[in-house]
Amino acid sequence: MAGDEGWSRPTGRRDLTRAGTLLRQGEVARAFAVAHEVAATAKENADERLALDALSVEADLLLSLGRVEDVLTLALDAAEALARRPRTPSSGFAVRGVVAEAALELGDVDLGARVLDPAAPGGGSLHPRFTLASARLRLILGAGSGTGIDATDHPTAKQDLPAWTFRVEATWWSRGPAAALALVQDVPLELATSADTWATLQFATTGLRVCADLGASTTGDGESRLALDVADALVRLVDARDLAEARMAASRTTRAAEEADWLAERARLRHYAPLSSWWLSAAERWQAHGRPHREAYARWRLSQALADEGDQQGATEQLRRADATARSHGPLLRQVRATASRLGAASEPAPQDGLTPREREVMDLAASGLTSAGVGHRLGISPRTVGKHLENAYTKLGTNNRVSALRRFHGQDRPGEAG
Questions:
Q1: pLDDT score of 261
Q2: Cα separation of 380 and 318, whole Å?
Q3: Closest CA relative to residue 213, chosen from 255, 184, 243
Q4: According to the model, what pLDDT value does residue 249 have?
Q5: 12-15: long-range contacts, CB 8 A cutoff, minimum separation 24
Q6: Structure confidence by residue, pLDDT tens digits, 120-146
Q7: Backbone angles phi, psi at 392, to 5 degrees
Q8: 217: CB partners within 8 A, 6+ apart
Q9: What CATH class is the domain 1-138?
Q10: pTM to 2 decimal places
Q11: SS3 of 268, please?
Q12: DSSP 3-state assignment of 327?
């Protein structure tokens, strides 16, 4: 109840900080228990700001574990409600930012844009998570020339490794590997070594992508030698974090896929053969997690490796699959199609229903007769999350019932017809 002895907002916020520390130490259950306790206390004391702080932290814990669909299940309704409010506290922008990051990871750009909608009223100060998610959305929508990229250099970039990682990625897409390499070099050592294991791996993998482009595309010049030196430093950085023994590793659902990306970029840099096997592993793992943009990137690299190995048919097939899964990521799609043009491969027609790859996967399984619980079991997600995917699919297909939606999904019915 309000005014409980010993309760205070600063105490609640300190406990939320402790939850993040517990997660990094591998104490996953305790981390969530602390966040739940703060949320309950905030509710009892009618403290909306602390409740939003707790919600954003719990959603961030899920995001840190790779459980992006659970983020949407937990916080999507709150995020959409916050976007419609005339004024939103900073913690509200944090909730919207985390939810948008989860949506973009799943390839649902429309949902990410809706949660971040800059036209939506929202007083208060923007949260760094919201700023970063907004910058990521602009990049995905096609800011290939650099439009909007400067916004990633917000005040926390030098204290936040994920923000720095995104700056490297955005620069790589917009200005090329040479410019991105300078950012990889400039990362503060303390920042790179003090972040959690998985933030370090993501930074190093992005950096290694840059180095592989430069080290593999030229031979013997100064830029190539510099890229190889930086790559060696990144490998030492990752090895020092002892990934295999990280206590948090066992709880991160995307661990194997992220490690597959790292190993594939390392193989590309060092010219390991057959390179296609490394990228096939990464693509299949990201596909299993329903991450279309990451899968598409891996298939794009796989197509290049197959072409180099003389498998033109295989390269063409992988480019078609990359094209299909990258359609909502402007810069990646341009690269896929540029490679297809060089190889003489045609792209497949785009699906016209607007469904994300995960929504199509859920609809396919529903069409096979599985219940929501059965679909969830097959995909490793909750029945409630399945329900969210189905609701989104129904809306995009222009209907509100399962039977009609499945007919339209399979092209047996069109909006406006009986069904």
A1: 96
A2: 26
A3: 184
A4: 55
A5: 12/38, 12/41, 12/42, 12/47, 12/50, 12/53, 12/54, 13/50, 13/53
A6: 444 445 788 888 898 898 889 875 443
A7: -60, -40
A8: 224
A9: mainly alpha
A10: 0.78
A11: helix
A12: coil
